[in-house]
Amino acid sequence: MPDVILRTEELTKKFGGLVAIDKMNLHLMKNEILGLIGPNGAGKTTLIRVVTGTYKADSGRVFFKEDDITNMPPHRICRMGIAKTNQIPRLFPKLTVLENVMIGALYGKEGKKTTSKAREEALYWIEFVGMGSKAHAYGKELQFVESKKVEIARAMATEPDVLLLDEPLSGLIDVEIDDAVEIIKRINSMGVSIIWVEHILRILMRNVMRVIVMNFGKKIADGTPYDVSKNPEVIKSYIGEEEHA
Amino acid sequence: MDTRKFLHIFGSREIFILISLVVIFGAIPPLAGSMYILNIGIRIFLWTLLTQSWNLLSGYTGYTNIGVAAFYGLGAYIIGLSIVYNIPIIVALFMAAIIPSFLGLVIGGVSLRLRGTYFSITTLMILLIISNIFYNISYFIPRTTSEIWIPQIPMSIGGMSLILSYYFIFYVLFVVVTITTYVIEKSKLGYALKAVGEDEMVAEELGINTTKIKVIALMLGTIISGIAGALYGMYLSYIDVPIFFSTFLTFVVMYVAVLGGKGVWYGPIIGTLLYVPVDEAIVLLTNIPEYSRIFYGLLFVLVMLLMPEGIGGFIKKKIR
C-alpha cells in the first residue's frame, strides 16, 4: 500500500485491567482527512496519544511511512512528521503566542533552524490561523477558541506530514466552527494528512473523506460517511439519536 | 509590526541592562578600591555565579538542584589537591570544570529521566556522600587532609595587588557567565528549557528531547559552579568541608535565585546585589549576624507576596 502514510497493526493499550484500545487496525492515506468518532471513553484520545508516543503501547505496532515508530519517544515521532493538538489546549501559559509557536518551529521536523528563521515561520502560522493581532499576548491570556487556533499553529510549525486533531471543534460556537473547519481544510490542501477526532458529527461527516467508528477500544466501522451512518452497529452504539437530528 | 515590538523581540532594554552591569562592576574597583569593597565585590561575583549555575536548570525548568555545593566543593578540592600534588594551575582549572560536569552528566543522566522530585533527592544525597568522602579524604588519598592550606598563588596581573587581580579574574568570569546566560535565554536551548518548565509533556511532543536538554543545562551549570569553587578556593587559600560542601550554601543560592527571579537571566544578579551588600552592612552595623537572617526572612515574605515571580520576574513583566 504505497499511499498509506500511517498505519496501526493490532495496536493495544491497557490501563491496568481496562483495555483502552483493543487490537486496533487503522490506516491513513496520503492527503486524506480521516474522521475518528465514537462515544465517550471509546479510546480515541488514547489512540492518538499512543501514535504520538505519549503513551506506550502494550502490543501491536505503529508504522509511519515505511518506518516502525511504535513506542519511540514523542520528540522523535514529532521530528519524523507527526503533530497533534489537544482537546483542552495546552499552551505554555507564561510564554507569548509567538514563543509558543516558535518552539514548534525550532524543534519540530526541520531541526536545524535559527531563532530568527523560526520567528518568521511562527509569524506565518500565527497569521495563517488568524491570530496575528495576538502574537505578543501570553498563552494564559487567550480565550479558549484562540488557544485552540494557536495550538494548531504550533502543531503546523513543526512541519508535520500527519496532523492529529483531538476534538478541534469542541467548545466552539457556530461562527467559530466555520472558521476552524476552513483552517483544517486549508491545512489538508497543503498536503497534510489529517486524523480528525470529533464529537460534532454533523460538521465532521460533511468534511471528511472516510470515517472510522470506535467503541470500547475496538473499530466497529470504517467507510465513507454515508456508509457508516447506515451501518446498523454504529447506529445501535452511537449515532442512533443523531439520525433524527 | 510596529518598531517598539520589533525592538522588544531583540531585547534592546535587556541589552542596556547587560551593558550597564558590565560597566558598573568594571568601574567600582578603580573608584573605591579598598580591600573591603573588593572583597564584597568578589563575594557578589561568587554568589552570582553559583546562582546562575543553579538557575540554568532549576530556574528555567523547575527541577530543583539541592546539591550545588557538591559541584562547587568539588571544584575547590580539585584545585587544592592539584596544588598539593604540583599539577599546573591551568590543568587544574580545566579539571575543575570537567569533573563536576561529568558528575552532572551521571546524576542527570540517571535522575533527570524521571519527572518529579527524584532529581532533587539525588542531588542532595550526592552532596552528603561527596562531603563525607572529602571529610575522610586522608583515607583515600595519601598525604592529604580534609583541610587544605594552599599557598597564595602569585596571580598578580600587570602589577595589581593580589585582591585586585582576583577581583578582575572573578569579574571576567562574571561577565562571561552573564553574557552566556543572556545568550542561552534567547537561544533555542533557552526556549526548550522554558518549554520544559511550563509543560514538559507538550515540550516533548513538539520535538524537544527533554532529558537531553535538562542534562545539558545541568552540565553547563556544574561547569560554572566547579570553576567558581576552584577560584574561590584559591582566593581563600584554605579549603575545608564545612565551607565548601555546605548544604546551607545551596539554600542561600535558592533563596537568592527565587528572590531575584528564577528563570530570568538577570534574576541571580538582582538577588545577589540584595543579599551580599545588605548582609555585610547589617553585620557591620550590629555585629550580630543573626539580624541579617531575620531581615532576609522578612524580605523574602514581602517579595513573595508582592512579586511572586521574584524581582526579576516583576521587572520582566514591566519592560515587556
Chain-wise SSE layout:
The complex is a heterodimer of chains A (245) and B (320).
Chain A lengths: L3 E12 L2 E12 L3 E5 L6 H8 L7 E6 L2 E2 L5 H7 L1 E4 L11 H11 L7 H14 L15 H14 L4 E5 L7 H16 L3 E5 L3 H7 L2 E6 L2 E6 L1 H6 L1 H8 L6
Parallel strand pairs in A: 3-8, 3-9, 6-7, 7-8
Antiparallel strand pairs in A: 1-2, 1-4, 4-5, 9-10
Helix pairs in contact in A: 3-4, 3-5, 4-5
Chain B lengths: L2 H7 L2 H20 L3 H27 L6 H17 L4 H23 L6 H18 L1 H4 L7 E2 L12 H25 L1 H11 L1 H6 L4 H27 L1 E2 L1 H4 L2 H14 L6 H20 L2 H18 L3 H9 L2
Antiparallel strand pairs in B: 1-2
Helix pairs in contact in B: 2-8, 3-8, 3-9, 3-11, 3-13, 3-14, 4-5, 4-6, 4-11, 5-11, 8-9, 8-11, 9-11, 13-14, 13-16, 14-15, 14-16
Q: What is the quaternary state of this protein?
A: heterodimer
- Provide the succession of SSEs of chain B: HHHHHHHEHHHHEHHHHH
Structural class of chain B: mainly alpha
Judged by helices, strands and strand pairing, the structural class of chain A is alpha/beta
- Main sheet characteristics of chain A: 6 strands, mixed
- Please state how the strands of the largest beta sheet of chain B are arranged side by side: 1-2
Distance between the termini of chain B: 15 Å
Helix content, binned percent of chain B: over 70%
Task: Determine the number of helices of chain A (DSSP H or I, runs of at least 4 residues).
Answer: 9
Query: How many β-strand runs of chain A?
Result: 10
Beta strand count of chain B: 2
Q: Characterize the overall form of chain B.
A: globular
Distance between the termini of chain A: 38 Å
Q: Any idea what the shape of chain A is?
A: globular
Residues in helices of chain A, as a percent range: 25-40%
